[in-house]
Write a structure and sequence with these properties.
single chain, 420 residues, alpha/beta, Rossmann fold, 2 domains, six-stranded parallel β-sheet, five-stranded parallel β-sheet
């Protein structure tokens, strides 16, 4: 018989006791166990909890008295967030929980995001929030596989609408804990940044050859949230190598587009010394929401409406030079090896002859700048082809093979057995 799954429930029991108790009851009625953590500051829980607010504050090397005496709710909640995230990580490491669920408004959500990031990928993490899907939540605060549900009508007091939300959330987190297939630790993972295959073909060319070499391949969509997920996993040391082959999120960040993954994008792998292969894929377009007016500065540019959600406009030659310098700056801070592959004939399907973003002069400026800035400690390979040509992917595989041969990347015997 399968062992019961234990879900950690996190919330402010002084003000949300009824809602949290209802959530616990839903989990237990479905056959799960609940472990409760109180992250209140001012009030006391009207019922017994497994982890008290005092234990949470102590885990942050502080106390409830210090939190209260600060006189600032933000400072107090950050103390609780530090303690709660540390305890969440320890509980999972000790095998005491199989998933977590937290609820709250802006304060509770702020804390919950830290707790979710404390858990590795594959551990269910669910946040019931009054600001779910809101632009108030920056992408770099989200863990790679976080799940959220809007807490409609639940700011104060248990009601029928609130019960509908909480019961769904209880079923979702327990079901996820029961159904999850954890990542295979014996197979090294390569993280790859890309866009859809209609625009970039290298993921199609590279995936199977990398699998044949003994890797698992995770491809992320460079639309802000994908970069957030890849960065979060890179920060955990999840990847054997990363293929940063599309850099549009950096360009979006530079010009203020909301389609970005935060200010630290393309830095986590470098900080950990994870080997990086990079390229300028899609580094000549700026993205914005199709359903909003085209920003004034881009209205006279080549424009492509990809769908009803996402549209793109071209960068000028000078803007491409600025992006190249910024990409180089981030890559040069890396502690591990970095190899940049520069295709000279184009960097996505829309810049080919006859397509809306075809601009040979601006492409030439971009190529020229990357040649100038990709210097030591970065190794540069210039390939006389388009990024969608097999020659580009062959160069990436050549670098990977070199790193396997010299031990930069280890392909374990266990992962090689997967191939057989």
């Amino acid at each position: 018989m399968t062992a019961k799954k234990t879900i950690l429930i996190i919330g402010t029991y002084d003000t949300k006791s009824d809602e949290l108790r209802f959530l616990q009851d839903c989990i237990e009625k479905q056959g799960g166990n609940a472990l409760t953590m109180d992250v209140s500051v001012l009030g006391d829980a009207p019922q017994q909890v497994d982890i008290s607010k005092h234990q949470v504050a102590e885990a942050a090397n502080s106390s409830i008295a210090v939190a209260v005496s600060s006189g600032d709710e933000n400072t107090a909640m950050q103390i609780m967030a530090t303690g709660a995230s540390k305890l969440t990580a320890k509980l999972h490491a000790d095998g005491e929980i199989d998933g977590m669920i937290a609820m709250g408004g802006t304060m509770g959500t702020d804390l919950a995001l830290d707790c979710a990031r404390a858990l590795p990928v594959g551990v269910p993490k669910y946040v019931i929030s009054t600001i779910a899907f809101s632009p108030l939540i920056p992408p770099d605060r989200l863990s790679a596989d976080i799940q959220m549900i809007l807490w409609a009508g639940g700011l104060y007091g248990l009601n029928d609408i609130c019960k509908a939300t909480l019961s769904q959330a209880a079923g979702a987190v327990l079901g996820a804990a029961q159904a999850v297939v954890p990542p295979d630790p014996d197979r090294p993972v390569i993280g790859m940044m890309s866009f859809g295959s209609s625009a970039l073909k290298y993921m199609v060319h590279l995936r199977q050859p990398l699998i044949d070499r003994g890797f698992s391949v995770a491809v992320f969509h460079g639309t802000g949230m994908g970069g957030m997920a890849m960065e979060s996993l890179a920060e955990q040391g999840y990847f054997a190598a990363v293929l940063e082959l599309a850099v549009a999120e950096i360009g979006n960040l530079m010009v203020g587009s909301v389609v970005n993954a935060g200010k630290d994008r393309m830095t986590a792998a470098g900080r950990r010394g994870t080997p990086i292969i990079a390229a300028p894929g899609f580094g000549d377009m700026i993205d914005f929401a199709t359903w909003q007016p085209v920003p004034a500065r881009f209205r006279d540019r080549p424009y492509h409406a990809h769908n009803r959600l996402l549209a793109s406009a071209s960068l000028t030659g000078q803007e491409r030079r600025e992006l190249a310098r910024e990409v180089a700056r981030r890559l040069k801070a890396a502690k591990g090896p970095v190899h940049f592959v520069l295709p000279t004939h184009g960097i996505h399907a829309w810049d080919t002859e006859g397509m809306p973003a075809h601009d040979p002069a601006a492409l030439a400026e971009m190529v020229d700048e990357y040649r100038k800035v990709m210097t030591d400690p970065i190794k540069l390979s210039v390939v006389d082809c388009h990024i969608n040509d097999l020659a580009f992917s062959d160069k990436v595989l050549e670098i990977i093979d070199g790193w396997i041969a010299d031990g930069t990347i280890e392909v374990t015997k266990q992962s090689q057995r997967h191939v057989a």
